[in-house]
Write a structure and sequence with these properties.
It is a single chain. This protein is about 50% helix and about 15% strand. The protein is an alpha/beta fold. It has a domain of about 240 residues: Spore Coat Polysaccharide Biosynthesis Protein SpsA, Chain A, CATH 3.90.550. It has an 8-stranded mixed β-sheet. Helix 2 links the parallel strand 1 and strand 2. The longest helix is centred in the first third of the chain and has 30 residues. The protein is globular and about 75 Å long. The N and C termini lie far apart (about 50 Å). The relative contact order is 0.14.
Length: about 375
C-alpha cells in the first residue's frame, strides 16, 4: 500500500471517526458505564444574565418570555447588559424596571465576555444562567436546567438549543445539525461530562465563575473548561429547551460558524485551558472539539491524496471508486449552493452544502485566527 493510499484512508478515517465512530463509541461506553446525575426539585436562587447588543427587535419578547418562566419570582434576578447598544434596546429594557429587571448599560462596547463579567459582578444568585436576547425559553426550562445542581459534582449545565423553522431551506439543515449535536452531548453527559455547551442557555455555580478574559472569543467554552478543570462535571440537560430563529441563508450561518471555529482554535492553542482535564474528558474534548476545526484540512488532503493515488496506481479500481464517491459529495454540496440561490428545496444537497461548507470555512477561520483578524466584537447576522 502506497503512502498516498495510506494518506487517503487515514484522512477519510479521521473524518468518519469524528462523525460516526466517536458517537458509536460514546453510545457503547455510556451503556456499559453510565454515570447518572442526581436531580432535585428544590429551587436555588438564580441570576439570569442576558447579553444584548442592538436587540430592540427582540428584547421585549425576550423579557416577556423570561417573566413567564415557571420559577419562584423571589428567587430569580434578571440582569440585562446592553453595553455598546446604539439602538433603543436600553430604553426598552428600562420599561421593565417595575418588574425588577436590572439594566446595565455602558456606551463603550467591549464584547460579550466583558458584558457577562459585568453582569456576574452584580449577580446575587447561587446559580448564574447566561442567555442571549434572541433565545426564548420554554416555561419549565429554567427549573429543569438548575435541577441538576442538586448533584454536588455538577459545576455547570447546558440547555438544549432548537431552531425555529422559517421558509429558508437552511433551517432544516441547521435543525439536523443541532439534533445530531444534542445526541452527542447527551451521550457525553451520560458517560461523564459534555464538552460542548450553548451560550444561549448555560448555567454555572456562581462560586465557580471566573471572570472571562476580554480577548476570549467563545465565552461559553472558556467557562465550561474552567469548570471541568475543577474536577467537576458539566451536564447537558435536553429537557431544558430554548429556541431561536434559524439563519436566513447557509452563507450567513457559515459566517457564524467560521467565527465559532476561530474561537475554538483560540481555545485549542491555549493549552493551559485544557491540559489539566482528566483523561476521559480530555479524550472527549479531543474527539468532539479539537478535530472539528481541522476537518476541512483532512477533507482537502483526502481528495488530493486520492486523486494522486489514482494517477500513480491507475490499476487500483477501489481507489477510483473512492475518488468518485468524494467527488459526488462535493457535487451534492455544489447542488445545494445552487438550490439556495434558486429557492429550490433539495434537502440532501442542502445538507451536504451545510456540512461541507462548514468544514471548508475552517481554512478561513485558521487564517483569521493566525492573523488576529477575528475580533471578540462579533457582528450580528440576520436571522
Amino acid at each position: 500500500m502506497s503512502e498516498l493510499t495510506i494518506a487517503t484512508l487515514g484522512c477519510l478515517g479521521i473524518i468518519a471517526y469524528h462523525y460516526i465512530g466517536y458517537p458509536l463509541l460514546l453510545a457503547t461506553a455510556a451503556a456499559l458505564r453510565p454515570n447518572p446525575v442526581r436531580r432535585d426539585t428544590e429551587y436555588p436562587s438564580v441570576s439570569l444574565i442576558i447579553s444584548a447588543y442592538n436587540e430592540d427587535v427582540v428584547i421585549e419578547e425576550k423579557l416577556r418570555n423570561t417573566l413567564k418562566l415557571q420559577y419562584p419570582r423571589e428567587l430569580l434576578q434578571i440582569i440585562v447588559v446592553t453595553d455598546g447598544s446604539t439602538d433603543t434596546t436600553p430604553e426598552l429594557v428600562e420599561r421593565y424596571h417595575g418588574h425588577e429587571v436590572v439594566l446595565l448599560h455602558k456606551a463603550e462596547r467591549r464584547g460579550k465576555s466583558a458584558a457577562i463579567n459585568r453582569g456576574a459582578e452584580l449577580a446575587s444568585g447561587d446559580i448564574l444562567v447566561l442567555s442571549d436576547a434572541n433565545a426564548l425559553y420554554e416555561p419549565d426550562a429554567l427549573a429543569r436546567l438548575v435541577s441538576n445542581f442538586a448533584d454536588q459534582h455538577v459545576a455547570a449545565v447546558s440547555g438544549c438549543k432548537k431552531v425555529r423553522r422559517t421558509e429558508a431551506m437552511v433551517t432544516e439543515s441547521e435543525g439536523f445539525y443541532w439534533r445530531y449535536e444534542s445526541l452527542i452531548k447527551k451521550l457525553e453527559s451520560r458517560l461523564d461530562s459534555t464538552v460542548a455547551v450553548v451560550g444561549e442557555m448555560f448555567a454555572i455555580r456562581r462560586k465557580l465563575f471566573r471572570p472571562i478574559p476580554d480577548d476570549i472569543i467563545n465565552d461559553d467554552s472558556y467557562l465550561m473548561l474552567s469548570a471541568l478543570n475543577n474536577g467537576m462535571r458539566v451536564i447537558y440537560e435536553d429537557r431544558a429547551v430554548c429556541s431561536e430563529l434559524g439563519a436566513q441563508s447557509v452563507n450567513s450561518e457559515l459566517v457564524r460558524r467560521e467565527r465559532i471555529m476561530a474561537g475554538r482554535l483560540q481555545i485549542i492553542f491555549r493549552r493551559q485551558l485544557w491540559l489539566r482535564l482528566r483523561p476521559l474528558v480530555a479524550f472527549q474534548f479531543f474527539s468532539h472539539k479539537v478535530l472539528r476545526p481541522f476537518l476541512g484540512v483532512f477533507m482537502g488532503a483526502a481528495l488530493f491524496a486520492n486523486f494522486a493515488a489514482v494517477v500513480v496506481e491507475s490499476n487500483v479500481t477501489w481507489l477510483l471508486i473512492l475518488l468518485l464517491a468524494q467527488c459526488c459529495c462535493y457535487l451534492l454540496a455544489i447542488l445545494g449552493w445552487i438550490a439556495e440561490r434558486t429557492a429550490s428545496r433539495w434537502r440532501l444537497p442542502a445538507l451536504a452544502y451545510y456540512v461541507i461548507g462548514s468544514n471548508l470555512r475552517s481554512f478561513n477561520a485558521l487564517r483569521k485566527y493566525a492573523s488576529g483578524q477575528q475580533t471578540v466584537l462579533w457582528e450580528k447576522l440576520p436571522r
